Amino acid sequence: KPLPTATHRYPYHLCLSPITMLTFTFLLLPVARARASIRATASHRPAAMFTAGAAACRRLPRKTLVTALSRSSRRRMRAFGSGSASAVEGYVPPKVWENKERPGVWGKLNQPYAGAREERGVPRGEHALQLYSFATPNGMKAGIFLEELYDRYKTEYDAWPIKISEGDQFTSGFVEVNPNSKIPALLHYTEENEEPVRVFESGSVLLYLADTLDTDQVFILKDPKLRAECISWLFWQVGAAPYLGGGGFKNFFNAEVKIESAIDKYALEVKRQFDVLDRHLGGKDGDATGGGPYILGEQFTIADIAIWTWYGLRALDAKSADGEFLGLASYPSVTAWAQRVADRPAVQRGQRVNKVWGNEAQQLPERHSAADFES
Ligand SMILES: N[C@@H](CCC(=O)N[C@@H](CS)C(=O)NCC(=O)O)C(=O)O
Fold first, then answer.
1. Which residue has the higher pLDDT, 308 or 105?
2. I want to staple 355 with a disulfide (CB 3.0 to 4.6 A). Which of 127, 135, 141, 367 is the partner?
3. Is 171 touching ligand 1 by the criterion CB < 6 Å?
4. What does the pLDDT average to over 139-160?
5. DSSP-derived 3-state class of residue 173
6. Which residues form the GST C-terminal domain (predicted)?
7. How far is the CA of 69 from the centre of ligand 1 (A)?
8. What are residue 294's DSSP bridge partners?
9. Which domains does the chain have, with CATH numbers?
10. Residues 238-261: pLDDT tens digits?
11. How far apart are CA 225 and CA 230, in angstroms?
């Protein structure tokens, strides 16, 4: 049998057309590659799907890509939260970063510059202490401690909501209290000073209130070793929480496009932090202050308040999607401590201060006296 000629085996008649060749090289081949890599990774590694797809598609114009990809590939991409072709294309950073419009409440509020955007003062009530806050984990720290101080010393204060979702943090009055435009912040009108003392950053609010108002030194202990331990845990929390909150785990876990390496990095660190707490509260590190019932042992301090609003509340929400993902039910000493703190009456009241969302019975937008909780 004679061997087939080359003409039979290869579609030379197609190759003869330069248009066909160009189409094949610059469109059909890259699209086929993109589809193959998306198919190969989609089943078991959704995050890698985007990277693979992005690498294979980078040279294609967006329109060509979106129409050329099969319907099922597009559906798979949407299922993992992309919904747009840019997720497939990936991000190629320009030489110099440029600001751009971002969607959503926070996208509109956050800008790469500081300072006041609107001329408006902050209100002032009759008490020496004026709290400007919102019932987020950082804001709650101040409300809870002020309520603990009320229970022990009957210290009254005024608390005003700073609605950060509406931009109150960028008004001139608030920026004068906190140039960083974040809650909580405090003004303390004292007899010695003509101008009020301004305090910003939640950790520093707790420390300032303990130093100036906790005359019995129960919320920050007198003994230098225990005082140092308390401040160490306080600073630990302020440094650690961004991995769990705003800038960290939650952001990547809830992101439109889930990036496996980012989620891994933050999940690992958050779990390590929970283990640090669990070992300490479970007395596994052999330190005199470890073993509970509170962070500093027998005494409930500002370290408990700071850590509880982030790690305690998360531990009590272990059945949520991210709580389950992080295995938060597997830190028994943290869970027991979190419940113990949650049972304190001042902690229950403090969570309501400057709260303007959720269950109405739990809201207290402004607080001017202890009686406000009864109304
Ligand atoms: N390190 C600060 C963080 C404060 C913070 O991030 N506050 C958030 C609410 S929890 C805020 O005010 N965000 C407003 C914004 O970012 O514009 C602290 O501990 O006080």
1. 308
2. 135
3. no
4. 98
5. helix
6. 223-373
7. 42
8. 297
9. 6-89 (no CATH), 129-216+362-373 (3.40.30.10), 224-343 (1.20.1050.10)
10. 999 999 987 788 888 888 889 999
11. 9
